[in-house]
Design brief:
Blueprint: H1 2-14, H2 21-30, H3 34-47, H4 52-64, H5 68-81, H6 86-98, H7 102-115, H8 120-130, H9 134-147, H10 165-173, H11 177-190, H12 195-208, H13 262-279
Helix pairs in contact: 1-2, 2-3, 2-4, 3-4, 4-5, 4-6, 5-6, 5-10, 6-7, 7-8, 10-11, 11-12
């Protein structure tokens, strides 16, 4: 194995765009040098971004390292380049098995069987999935006994799919539109503001023939126009002059001693007559 690694290293050193990085990374993986294997695939896929086997090999290494989300992304890239990639289909089905999603793994393997009917690995995996599993029944019975009859068993979250758009698109490529819809709905629950997920949900619902009921719009109840209050007329009384206009202040004259002589009496009469004519 070391000799093979040395040979592949010489090839990629002379020609960085060579596809020899795939067997080089695989050799590293087989002897447990996973970091070196991953680095080789990353450098190789940068040089050959349209080489599907490079991403399939990267997905296998990431899965062995326990990086399931990144592994699914690598397989999705491989399938986007070659939807019939045997390595990507088998690797993706294994990831579902790791997560306990046996039904999804079976669907992917059945599709892979259509593309590769003579592939023994795919056939063996399908047969193994259908074999009896007595330990599963024992395990369920043991859990039920531990919880007791009065306790409801909690839902098993270990097999929940990773809520990522990458995983959803993998389901779309495999024709599993219902699973893709579930993943996108999970994304929307986690991020209600994700408009791209909302649009993708509507597209998938149309593809599945699901009646999409438009969201109920907020019914705006027309408000009755507010009646303007009638203006309050305040009668403002004009100030009344307490002094009548007709009333004039009469000059106050002090009484003087009257002259009783005939000449004085005559002058007073003439004065009265004169005043009377003036006022007429």
């Amino acid at each position: 194995m070391i000799g093979k690694i040395g040979s592949y290293l010489q090839i990629v050193t002379k020609d960085p765009s060579s596809t020899a990085f795939v067997p080089l990374a695989e050799a590293y993986r087989q002897i447990g040098l996973l970091d070196d294997a991953l680095e080789a695939t990353r450098l190789g896929t940068e040089m050959l971004p349209h080489f599907s086997p490079g991403f399939s090999t990267m997905g296998r290494i990431l899965g062995q390292m326990g990086m399931l989300d990144e592994s699914m992304s690598a397989y999705a890239k491989a399938l986007s380049i070659d939807r019939q990639s045997q390595a990507a289909l088998v690797g993706l089905s294994r990831l579902h098995l790791i997560r306990g999603e046996r039904d999804q793994a079976r669907k992917i393997l059945q599709q892979a069987k259509e593309f590769h009917p003579d592939d023994e690995k795919i056939s063996d995996m399908l047969v193994a999935l259908d074999l009896p599993r007595p330990w599963a029944n024992i395990k369920r019975a043991s859990k039920a006994h531990e919880q007791g009859p009065s306790h409801k068993s909690a839902p098993d979250e270990s097999g929940a799919p990773i809520a990522t758009a990458t995983l959803a698109e993998i389901y779309v490529k495999q024709g599993l539109l219902d699973k893709a819809l579930e993943v996108y709905q999970g994304i929307l629950v986690q991020s209600p503001e994700n408009e791209s997920a909302r649009k993708r949900i509507m597209q998938l619902q149309e593809m599945l023939g699901v009646d999409v009921n438009p969201a109920a719009e907020d019914v705006q109840v027309p408000e009755e126009p507010l009646q303007e209050p009638s203006p309050v007329v305040v009668a403002v009384e004009e100030p009344v002059d307490s002094t009548p206009a007709s009333m004039e202040e009469s000059p106050v004259t002090q009484s003087e001693p009257k002259d009783s002589s005939p000449l004085a009496v005559l002058q007073r009469w003439l004065s009265v007559i004169k005043n009377g004519r003036t006022n007429v």
